[in-house]
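Hi team,

Filling in the usual template for the complex we talked about on Friday. All components are listed, including any nucleic acid strands or ligand strings, so the model treats them as one assembly.

SUBMITTER: L.P.
PURPOSE: interface mapping
COMPONENTS: two
RESIDUES: 606
SEQUENCES:
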Amino acid sequence: MVKDILRNLGGLGWPWRILVILLAAGTALFYFTGSPYYQSLFLAIAMYVVLCSSWNIISGITGYVSFGHVAFWGLGAYITAVLIVKLDFPWPLALLSSGILTGVFAALISYPILKLSEVYFAISMLALAETVKILVGYFRGLTGGGGGIYLRPLIRPNMAFVLMTSLALIVVLMTYMLQDTKFFKSLMAIKNNELAAGSLGIDTTRRKTQAFILSAVFPALAGGIYILNVAFIDPKTAFDIGITLNTIMMTVFGGLGTVLGPVIGPAVFMLLSETLWARFPFVHKAILGAIIVALVIFLPRGILSALMRGVERLRTRLGRAT
Amino acid sequence: MGDFLSILISGLIMGSIYALLAGGLTLIWGVMRIVNLAHGEFLMLGCFATYYLFGVLGGIPLLAIPLMAPLFFLFGAVLYLLVVRKIVNAPELMSMLLTFGVSIFIINISVLVWSGEMRIVEYLSGSFQVGGVLISRPRLVAGVVAVTISLGMYLFLQKTRIGTAIRAVSYDREIAEQCGINANLIYLLVFGIGTVLGASAGSLASTIFAFNPLVGQHFILKAFAITVLGGMGNFLGALIGALIIGVVEQVFAYLLDAQISAAVAFVVIIATLLIRPRGIMGER
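RESULT (copied from the run log):
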C-alpha cells in the first residue's frame, strides 16, 4: 500500500503537482498574514475535509455506511488530552499516539463490527459512538467526566491551522494515490458485491479491516489537533452525533466515493452555513435543514456529478453550435 | 425481591413507551425502506401538543392522544406528500439525509417558538404500593396506555384488511400492486400512522419526563437501536426488543449507575447483532 502511494507520487500529473504546491504555498502565506477569523474558518473546513475523506474510504468506497464516525474524532481528542495532562507527553508525541491508539482501537472493534452489513452496521457504529461517549463520561478520574478536560494552550491558532490543512492535504492526496491500486479496486469490488469479490480471491475481511483502520486514524489526528487548538473538550462535544451527520451530508453532496467530493462538499457547505449564520442568526439552522431536504430531492448524486453533467451538456451544446 | 420486582415493572413500563416509538420507526422502515431520523421530532411535537391541550382543557392529559391523533396523521400525510414521497425505496443514505434535514428544520423552528426551556405535564404524582412493590402512578398509567396502543396496532396489522395490505406491500411491493393494492396510498397511510405512534409516545413521555424541543434526540438513538435489535421492519420484534432494553436499562441503573446503564443497553444491542446479525425476529 505504502509502496503504491510512493510510486504514484512520482507519477503525479503536473496539474496536481501545481495544485499541491499552490495550496501549500497558500497555507504558508496564510500562516503569517491571514486574519484569525479566516484561519479558523479554513481550519474548520480542513477538519471536515479530513472527516469526510476518511469517512468516504469506509463508507463511500467500501460501501459500509458508518453512523459513528465521530467516535474516532472524539477518541483522538480525548487520547491526546489525557496523554498530555496525565502523562506529560509533549504535544506532537501525544498527537501521533492518539492516531496510533485509535487505529488499534479500530482494529480491535473491526472484528465483530465488520461482520454486520447495511443498516445493521450503520446503527451499530452509532451505538458504538454512544457507548464510547458514555464510558468517557463515566471514568471521571481519567477523563474529567461530564465536566470535560482542559489543556493549557500549547499551540497558537495559526499553528493549528497549518497542521489541520496539511493533514487535509495528506488525506486527499493519499486517497488520490490509492485510487487505482489493487487495494481500492478490492474495496470497490466489496461495495458492488462482497460475496462475488470473495469468490474472485479477494481477502474481503482483511481489506475491509484495512479500510476501517485507515478511516479511523485520520479523524483521530484531526480530533487531536482540534483539542490542541481549543484546549477544552467534553463528551457532549467530542461525540456529538451532529458531527457524524454533517460529515455524511457534506460527503454525499460533494460526491460519494469520489476523491474531490469530500473536499468540495465541506467547502461549499461550511461557506454556505457561515453566510447563512451571518445573515440569519436565528433561523440559519432551520434554513440549512430545508436546504438539505432540497438537495436530497434535486441533487441526489452530489454537486460534483451535477457540475460534470452541466459541463457535459454545455459541451454538447457548444459542439452543436460550432 | 420487592426491589427486583419494582425494577422489573419500571423497566417494562419504560420499554412499553420505547416500543411505541420504535414501532412507528420499524413500520416506516419495513414498508417504505425509509430510515426516519425525524421520528424523535414527532415525539417532541407530541409532548408539546399534550402540554397545550392539557393546559387549555385541563383534566386528563392522556385524552390528548385521541384528540391529536387525526392532526398528527394529517401532519405525517402532508410531510409525506411534500418531501418523503421522493425517497421511498431510495438508498438508505438518501432517506437518512432527507429526514435528517427535516429533523433539523423542525427542531430549530420549535426552539424559536418554544425556546429551550424545560416543561413537564403534571399529572398523577406519587406512587403506591402493592405487596411491597413500589409503583409510580404516572408511569403505570403511561405504560398501560402504551401497551394497549402497541397491541392494538399489532392486531390491526395482523387481523384487518388494511393491515394485511400493509404487510403485503412491506413483503413485496410489485406483487402487492398486482393484487390490486394501491402501494402509494399504503405509504401515505403508514407514514401517517408512524407519525401518530411517535406523537403518542411523546404524549405519554411528557407526563413522566421534563422536555424541551431537543427531547427527540434523546429518544431517537435508543429507538433505532431497538428496531435494529428486533429486526428492522418487524413490528413484534420492536415490541420485544423495547421491553428487553427497558428492563436491562433499569436493572443496570440499579446495580451500577444510571449513566452507565445506557451504555449497557447499546452493548446488549451490538452483542445480540453478532449472534443474530438481522435482529431477534429478523429473517436469516
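MY TAKE: Chain B has one domain: 2-217. The mean pLDDT of chain B is 84.

Thanks, L.
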